[in-house]
Design goal:
The protein contains two helices and no strands. The protein is mainly alpha-helical. It has one domain. Helix 1 packs antiparallel against helix 2. The radius of gyration is 46 Å and the shape is rod-shaped.
Length: 144
């Protein structure tokens, strides 16, 4: 189980305990009212006690809701950090691969350019040699 799952399970358990305590308190209050019947008239619980118990219960519920919200936020924050770290690593990997690919393409381009330039230079020289050789051959032919 993950930490977030453990935290959620603990929160659910605490919530269940709080609800159980509130129901017990309510049941005890009802029982005390019904057993406190004297002379055919029910004895009502002290209004201050009822108000205090109500607000204590409401505070427990609110505290549990706060704890739950914080647990959810913590889990979401940890997940977002993990995704962010993974995205950064992926971006770095893609950048490295793109850089290596660009270097490879550049190296092949330079090699191809050098090869073409070398062949062009050789062809130009050969053409120049042929061009200067043709008039010389014609002159030699006329002298003979």
């Amino acid at each position: 189980m993950t930490t977030a799952t453990d935290q959620f399970t603990e929160f659910a358990s605490r919530t269940q305990d709080a609800v159980t305590a509130a129901v017990r308190t309510w049941a005890d209050t009802v029982q005390s009212v019904t057993t406190g019947l004297t002379g055919g008239q029910p004895k009502l619980p002290d209004a201050h006690v009822v108000v205090d118990r109500y607000f204590d219960f409401a505070q427990q519920v609110l505290d549990n809701q706060r704890a739950f919200a914080q647990t959810v936020l913590d889990a979401g924050s940890k997940a977002a950090e993990s995704v962010s770290e993974q995205a950064a690593r992926a971006a770095e990997s893609v950048t490295d691969q793109a850089t290596r690919a660009a270097e490879s393409v550049t190296a092949h381009g330079v090699n191809a350019t050098e090869t073409v330039a070398s062949k062009a230079s050789a062809a130009t020289k050969a053409a120049g040699d042929q061009a200067t050789g043709a008039p010389r051959a014609a002159r030699n032919a006329t002298k003979n």
